[in-house]
TrEMBL record:
Alphabetic keyword roster: Membrane, Transmembrane, Transmembrane helix
Official protein name in the record: Uncharacterized SAM-binding protein YcdF, DUF218 family
Domain DUF218: 104-260
GO biological process per UniProt: Gram-negative-bacterium-type cell wall biogenesis; peptidoglycan metabolic process
Transmembrane region(s): 9-26, 32-50, 70-91
InterPro entries: Cell_Envelope_Assoc (IPR051599), DUF218 (IPR003848), Rossmann-like_a/b/a_fold (IPR014729)
């Protein structure tokens, strides 16, 4: 590839990444899956704008040329692992929606906005409610404690949404109101299930967003859930791949923290 082609391609890709990130930040979306593309985009744009200076600097010594080659190789190796993760995640999503009877349906929290479920959380609740209507004997377990500056727990907001929007009988809904993470969600639910004489050996449905399926299932398995059925809620296209990127880092973090 010629120098001008490299320069143009870097600038175009960088601009698209920066514009996408800035747009999502303007919508009050902020997480690593948005910030990281912004950083990469700015880097690619600077590389394109100062291409000649950077190349001249690299060519001054053989050590700099070697380090540059290793840096480029490392970057493309990382991109390869990201692509593999995305492909495997897409495969897991396609396999996750096999519906079968279960004793309980655990809907994992995903944040509330102004006392209401976030768009992502609404998707999860809608999927959980659809399952509950199909299998009326299953209990619904909603999870999530108090967020920053919130006056009501996430689980309480979720329960209210299920009752008002889907007419789910409150007697079928269990609330787990102390957790702040997926691992805590699934751990704190266990005593609630035990009170209803539901063991971890019985089939249990976990409802979460499509990008979160892999990690949620891995954490549940590590905690002793033996018959895990996963149902995925779709992520809006405009933020889908940013969410998948965030999950890439979260999956690595969970492994390092020995959550699974």
């Amino acid at each position: 590839m010629s120098s001008s082609a490299k320069r143009s391609l870097s600038f175009i890709i960088g601009s698209l990444l920066v514009l996408d990130s800035l747009w999502l930040l303007a919508l009050d979306k902020i997480h690593l899956g948005i910030i990281f593309p912004l950083i990469i985009g700015i880097g690619l744009m600077l590389y394109a704008l100062f291409f000649n200076r950077i190349q001249n600097f690299i060519q001054l010594t053989s050590l700099r040329q070697t380090l540059w080659r290793y840096a480029c190789a490392g970057f493309f190796l990382w991109i390869s692992t990201l692509v593999i993760f995305f492909i495997y995640l897409q495969y897991s999503i396609q396999q996750s929606n096999t519906v079968q009877p279960a004793s309980a349906v655990i809907v994992l929290g995903s944040g509330i906005e102004n006392g209401r479920p976030s768009p992502t959380l609404k998707q999860r609740l809608d999927v959980g409610a659809a399952y509950a209507k199909r299998y009326p004997e299953a209990l619904l377990v909603v999870t999530g404690g108090l967020g920053f500056k919130e006056q009501i727990s996430e689980a309480a907001v979720m329960s209210e949404y299920l009752q008002q929007q889907h007419h789910i009988d409150p007697s079928r809904i269990l609330l787990e109101v102390k957790s702040t993470s997926t691992a805590e969600n699934l751990r704190n639910v266990q005593p609630l299930l035990a009170q209803q004489h539901i063991s971890l050996k019985q089939p249990v449905v976990i409802v979460t967003s499509d990008f979160h399926i892999l990690r949620a299932k891995a954490i549940a398995k590590h905690q002793g859930y033996q018959q895990i059925i996963t149902l995925s809620a779709p992520t809006p296209l405009y933020i889908r791949y940013n969410s998948w990127l965030r999950e890439y880092f979260a999956f690595i973090s969970g492994w390092l923290l020995r959550e699974y």
